[in-house]
Amino acid sequence: MYSINHQSYPYQNTRNAVYAKNGMVSTSQPLASQAGLAILKKGGNAIDAAIATAACLTVVEPTSNGIGGDAFALVWTKGELHGLNGSGRSPKSITIDAVKDTGYDDIPKYGWTPVTVPGTPGAWAELSEKFGKLPFREVLEPAITYASDGFPVSPTLSKYWKNAYNVFKEELTDDVFLNWFDTFTPKGRAPETGEIWSSLDHAETLRSIAETNAESFYRGELAEKISNFSSENGGYLSAEDLAEHRSEWVKPINVNYRGYDVWEIPPNGQGIIALQALNILKGFDFPEKESADTYHKQIESIKLAFADGQKHVTEESHMELTTEEMLSDEYGELRRKLIDENAHIPKAGEPSLSGTVYLATADDEGNMVSFIQSNYMGFGSGLVVPGTGIALQNRGHNFSMDPNHVNALKGGKKTYHTIIPGFLTKNNQAVGPFGVMGGFMQPQGHVQVIMNTIDFHLNPQAALDAPRWQWIKEKTVEVEHRFPHHLAAALADKDHDVRIALQPNSFGRGQIIWRDPDTGVLIGGTESRTDGTVAAW
């Protein structure tokens, strides 16, 4: 058996962990958490609650995710962990040469070129069909209500909305982007904190998805609207691309870290980077958390893992190395030997910001869900399908234009994906779901909250509240302003280029739910860097 340590830590602005017996939903948005809790109270299970919460988040946090994005899930039910890859493929017709013929040497952030098939609606429907208790339509009803009746915009949401608007009004000047402005800035500006925002188009789209189990999105009226919008504006996405989409059940991957099994979705996701870093770190001893040596080894390990991830990770069938090879103890030992007392420059790409939502749910039957969905880079491609409220993702931006790269752009292929749900078990029993959203911060956040939990015995809220660091590129590391300054100076002495970030935006937003194995009590934490809430009963 294992035990959950309830230790707190004296960080500024820390909150108490939440304890409950019957059910729990942890998200970055209070209204979404309450929607998931309402589904639990109606007799739904943790899977129903996760779907309801995820659908609500497309409405109440559109700056980070949407119906036109991708999703992944780890589901614990009846003593077994299941993985769902709900990411979509690139359009069949797209090629590197075709993109270059339009004048691009790199895949742009906005417009039709980076748009891939949205996988989120299909993931909801698949989860509901396989594990849900309540009718799919009933589970989506809270989201439909918020979209049609409106909701008051929360403070953090308003800030990100304004940031997106300020960027988009400068960069999205073509008429193809007008639908985004009509949908998300109908008053010619981003909504203020407390202002009511609604989208009847979004509500009707959710209703269509609910009534058809997402069939309309891939092989019906919504698919027709999406493909027509694409063909009318020179896009690559076709009705055939949508019709062929299917969510994929996959076998989760893991490493054992100090007696606990840490689980991730296999590639094309970057969860393998978190596992690689932990596989390196498990060979070290960490007697104290607040030590320059601890932070140095964490940073160097994540750099080595990213070097491998950026070189080798794409859709698994296109990878030259297997996940088993990358996560083997022998390879972990080889990488560990590269870490000495000074910072080094790895061969890796440059991490960037993203837009993602993560949620965790649990019920009194033992079911637990780790779920994540995203449009990427906030609102995604800047494209909204007319009459639907569907903001399309720009996930294809992660493809490489180098034809010799493992993640090279190719038609009908899944790209290297940043969004990753995590799950923790011990002795084949569920400890619970965890996640930290935020682009390439995500595996770094996973490593930090797992070590905070296992090595330093922090409860879920304290594990999330602890000051974070983020490797940016080469020897550059950003730390939060609450990060101990004497340790930042000590890292600089080890040749790290340490920069103190004044804003918390880039350090991810996480959620955790652990279950005590003896009592069944749920222990939840939510992100203090946003409007997060743990709803429980």
From TrEMBL:
Kindly give the InterPro entries that the UniProt entry links to this protein.
GGT-like_enzyme (IPR052896), GGT_ssub_C (IPR043137), Ntn_hydrolases_N (IPR029055)
E.C. numbers: 2.3.2.2, 3.4.19.13
Q: Record's SUPFAM superfamilies?
A: N-terminal nucleophile aminohydrolases (Ntn hydrolases)
Pfam families associated with the record: G_glu_transpept
Alphabetically ordered keywords of this record: Acyltransferase, Hydrolase, Transferase
Q: Which GO terms describe its molecular function?
A: glutathione hydrolase activity; leukotriene C4 gamma-glutamyl transferase activity
Query: Can the keyword Transferase be found in this entry's annotation?
Result: yes
Q: What Gene3D superfamilies has UniProt attached to this entry? A: 1.10.246.230, 3.60.20.40
Supply the name of the protein. Gamma-glutamyltranspeptidase/glutathione hydrolase
